[in-house]
Amino acid sequence: MKKLSTLSSYMLLSLFGLIMIYPLLWLVSATFRTNAEIFSSIGLIPSHINWDSYINGWKGTGQYSFGTFYTNSILLTLPVVVGTALSSLLVGYGFVRFEFPLKKILFSLMISTLMLPGAVIIIPRYLLFKQLGWLDSYLPFIIPAFLGTFPFFNFMMVQFFRGLPRELDESAKMDGCGSFGILLRILLPLCKPAVFSVSIIQFIWVWNDFFNVLIYVNSVRKFTLPLALRMSLDAVANVNWSEIMAMSLLTMLPCIFIFFLAQKHFVEGISTTGLKG
User: Fold this and answer.
1) Contacts of 215 (CB under 8 A, 6+ apart)
2) What total number of domains does the chain contain?
3) What percentage of residues in the chain have a pLDDT greater than 70?
4) SS (H, E, C) 172-224
5) CA 197 – CA 85 distance, rounded (Å)
């Protein structure tokens, strides 16, 4: 009876998994189809495999190819991810391991910004970045990332640091370590799961960001992949959907690859964050 129950559970989970992954499999299949076949069939096996959608789609619809847009996404995303990981690490370490005036008030203010809708601050931020001369560049994304402006990730690191015993700090102080020595030599190796979690989530958010890049970036040559995909739909009257599907799949691949590559650290970071209040 127990084996039958286990087998039923596996079959049910496998069926549910197939249902969840079906849209992705259909997307892969659609990259090899014609427009007529895309809108007439929900099967996963195309009648004819054609690689032209990847070749023509990569060329783009204007003077810039998708190689340019891929480079732009990398140039935007990597500095933001590095800045977010470093700044959230320092903010979490500071709030948990140091005592300073107005600490509780500042922490409460930081947490309260989590409930602030992004639409409320988009106009003040735009005006500020316009005065600084940062429009039509990636500075509105990179500079704030290094200044700890993401309260969600700051809170994640605070909760993780709260789970690390202070005895580690005391032992390091006895060996002559200073504050940054304790962070770099003792606590940072233990924070690897949380840093991986912050980096993966931020990478996916920034890589797929459409609205904010649309607001601050005006030049086509600086467009990232989400904007390039939308531009491809507007550039021609008759859309070749197989090319759009092919470029959409190539856009998704870095997120999928990074998630599965660091899945162990990501799950560990999520499961160990917030154990102590």
Assistant:
1) 122, 126
2) 2
3) 94
4) HHHCCCCHHHHHHHHHHHHCHHHHHHHHHHHHHHHHCCCHHHHHHCCCHHHCC
5) 9
Considering the domain boundaries, does residue 44 fall inside one?
Answer: yes
Neighbours of 89 (CB within 10 A): 23
Q: Which two tokens stand for residue 253?
A: 């691949």
At 23-71, the pLDDT tens digits run 888 888 988 888 888 888 787 888 778 888 898 889 877 788 899 999 9
Angle at CA of residue 47, ends 67 and 228, nearest 5°: 20
Q: Give residue for tokens 């892969």.
A: 28
DSSP per-residue string spanning 139-173: HHHHHHHHTT--HHHHHHHHHHHHTS-THHHHHHH
CA distance 245 to 55: 12
- For residue 23, the enclosing domain spans 2-50
Q: Are 37 and 73 contained in the same domain?
A: no
Which residues contact residue 251 at a Cβ distance below 8 angstroms, ignoring those fewer than 6 apart?
A: 225, 226, 229
